[in-house]
Amino acid sequence: MRTTDAVRASDALRHRTAGAVRASDAVRTPDTERRDRPEAAAPAGARRPRPTPTPAAPPADLTRPHPTPAPSPAAPCLALVLAGALIPVRGAGQDPTRLGREAPDCAHVPGLAALDQVSRAHAELYWHAGRLYVADTDSVNGTYVDGLRISRPAQLWPGGHRLRLADDPEGVDVTVVELDEYGAPL
């Protein structure tokens, strides 16, 4: 046995005893070396067998189902009733729901554009830590929660708080309602 073969054999033995056996650790003999070389594997003039194609593995998502994350306690589906129209409240992690005469979320509210007491960009609603908050966006006539003008964000849901845009007789009451799975108020 040559010296390098002896070293390889001792390395292979050491790896086997440690539980890690790799193909590169195997002892090479003149017979195995000849079989490993493609030009020496078959006698001259003999046809080499074609390698058998390995079937392609199916895409990873079909072999094992991905674990589904545990459902997080989702915020309920809420909407605002403003001047008789239903305005869906965007969910957590989305842009705030904006209220005002020129707010895109309120474009379908009949007669809102004619109310001068409501600013063009009056207030916005957003989620934080599973609670719905309202923030006044520097409106002229103010945003009121439970009859008090707010100067910083105030919790609106849960709790059944009353929201009003402008506190004069022409102001607009806004009601927060929970929606069922069909989008109808509960």
UniProtKB/TrEMBL annotation:
Q: Where is the composition biased (Basic and acidic residues)?
A: 28-39
List keywords of the entry alphabetically.
Answer: Phosphoprotein
Q: List every stretch annotated Disordered.
A: 1-73
| Presence of keyword Phosphoprotein | yes
Which superkingdom is the protein from? Bacteria
Annotated FHA domain ranges read: 97-150
Protein name per UniProt: FHA domain-containing protein
The species is: Streptomyces microflavus
